[in-house]
Amino acid sequence: MSQWNSLITVLSEITRKNCIMFVCCPHCGNSHAYIKWGFYSRYLFNDELINIQRFRCDNDLCPCKTFSILPHALLPIIRASLCMLTYILKMYEQGSNIADIVRHTGSNWPRIQRWIAKAFAIRDWFRQEYDIRPSPCLSPGRFWTSLTRDFSWSFYPERFR
Ligand SMILES: [Zn+2]
């Protein structure tokens, strides 16, 4: 198994295990007044589907009606994890071209182009916001919820609700 495929397998397993967690609205911090509010599906890195629980926040003062808590290592919207982006960026900066990376990852050209651009943007964002580089982050713990919330605000403000 290639290093890339091992990474995908490990990340998918980690994400599956992380699905049960402490429930707390990431927008207002309420961890008492909420109800389960359906599911949506996300693809794991190995293309399996998992259900993500959505919650309705019942705090009247909360700016948002619903929230979900993404299990590490899923990022909002994007299909790649931080590790995968870091991996690809490293290949790119060490001289691999897009064709090499497409071949190595079994992916496609537009996606790898998008991921490289996103990897640069995320690295800049990390340096500004957190003063750290995107580490492999295999076990960020509770940090993940605030990180994914900040990530949504920064990269997908139009989707934020
Ligand atoms: Zn709330």
Brief synopsis:
This protein has helices spanning 3-17, 82-93, 98-105, 109-129, 143-155; strands at residues 34-43, 49-57, 66-68.
Keywords:
161 residues; alpha+beta; 3-stranded antiparallel beta sheet; globular; binds zinc ion
Can you walk me through this structure?
This protein is of the alpha+beta class. It has one domain. It contains five helices and three strands. The protein has helices at residues 3-17, 82-93, 98-105, 109-129, 143-155, and strands spanning 34-43, 49-57, 66-68. The chain has a three-stranded antiparallel beta sheet with strand order 1-2-3, with no helix packed on it. Helix 2 packs across helix 4. The structure holds zinc ion. Zinc ion is lined by residues 25, 27-28, 30, 57, 59, 62, 64.
Topology:
Layout: H1 3-17, E1 34-43, E2 49-57, E3 66-68, H2 82-93, H3 98-105, H4 109-129, H5 143-155
Antiparallel strand pairs: 1-2, 2-3
Helix pairs in contact: 2-4
Zinc ion binds at residues 25, 27-28, 30, 57, 59, 62, 64.
Structural class: alpha+beta
Mean pLDDT: 88
Which ranges are low-confidence, i.e. pLDDT below 50, for 5 or more consecutive residues?
none
Terminal CA distance = 40 Å
- Number of structurally distinct domains: 1
Q: How many DSSP H or I helices? A: 5
Task: Kindly provide the radius of gyration, computed on alpha-carbon positions and rounded to a whole number of angstroms.
Answer: 17 Å
List the helices and strands in order. Answer: HEEEHHHH
Main beta sheet strand tally, sense and closure: 3 strands, antiparallel
Total strand segments: 3
Helical content (DSSP H or I, runs of 4+): 40-55%
Bound molecules: zinc ion
Strand content of the residues, in percent?
5-15%
How would the global form be characterised?
A: globular
- Placed side by side, the strands forming the largest sheet appear as 1-2-3
